[in-house]
Write a structure and sequence with these properties.
Helix content: under 10%
Number of helices: 1
Radius of gyration: 24 Å
Number of strands: 12
Strand order of the largest sheet: 1-2-3-4-5-6-7-8-9-10-11-12
Distance between the termini: 48 Å
Strand content: over 45%
Structural class: mainly beta
Largest sheet: 12 strands, antiparallel, barrel
């Protein structure tokens, strides 16, 4: 009798439960999203080397403003010494308005083995969405800024002076969805100053494996017009990472 009463109670309560929480219920979309990715390579045998790169991106997209922060880290070494160590921090806030947005941005680089070991760029300006549809998005930005570059120590100049420059920054950010599970992103940035000019292309391809996991191939190419003696004008970093997205 007791078991029968319990069974009847479940049957009577079931419609009420489904009415309160329907099967198709989904959590409302969040204004916050994040991406975490990492890649590691280890070589043994004739070549003893290892490398690691990681990236974390946080985004808060509200009704009036969008805030975004990205931290990147690159590290490489062989059996004798560290051959690469670099950290990039990018912060940007977009304040939305009719037809576009006003932005403030900061770019900070610490590169132990780069032609410039410290790079700081502060900029602001105006941006707008040139293309915005279901498959393709492209935004354009322009504005003035200030750049601080500290060259690497060389034999000829053991204690170099920092390079300080007013710049004009222009940027194009492109995103295209190739298929349901694949997409391509390209960010092109140019900084023109009286003392130096740079062009940076950040290109990556992403393929979703399952749910929130994806495989990502990325290439970052930076050209600097004026570099210390003995340094290359072009720096290239290619990564193969596993990416996790949550929101």
């Amino acid at each position: 009798m007791r078991n029968t009463f319990i069974s009847l109670s479940f049957i009577l309560l079931s419609p009420s439960v489904y009415a309160l929480v329907p099967p198709e219920y989904k959590e409302p979309p969040s204004d916050f999203s994040a991406e975490i990715e990492a890649g590691f390579q280890l070589n043994t045998g004739n070549t003893q080397s290892s490398s690691f790169n990681g990236r974390t991106k946080l985004v808060y997209d509200g009704d009036d403003a969008r805030h975004e922060g990205t931290l990147k880290a690159y590290f490489a070494s062989d059996s004798e010494r560290t051959t690469a160590e670099k950290y990039d921090l990018q912060l940007q806030s977009n304040y939305k308005m009719d037809g576009g947005y006003l932005f403030g941005r900061g770019d900070f680089t610490w590169d132990q083995f780069g032609s410039y070991t410290r790079i700081t760029t502060i900029s602001s300006g105006y941006g707008f969405d040139a293309i915005d549809n279901r498959k393709t998005k492209m935004s354009l930005e322009i504005g003035p800024g200030y750049r601080y570059n500290l060259p690497i120590d060389t034999v000829a100049i053991p204690n170099p002076e920092a390079e300080k420059d007013l710049i004009l920054r222009t940027a194009a950010k492109f995103e295209h969805k190739l298929q349901e599970y694949t997409s391509i992103n390209a960010d092109l940035t140019a900084e023109a100053g009286e003392k130096n000019k740079t062009i940076t292309l950040d290109l990556h391809y992403k393929n979703t494996l399952f749910q929130d996991w994806a495989f990502k191939i990325g290439t970052n190419v930076k050209y600097t017009e004026v570099v210390p003696a003995g340094s290359e004008q072009t720096d290239t970093v290619t990564t193969f990472n596993l990416l996790y997205t949550f929101q």
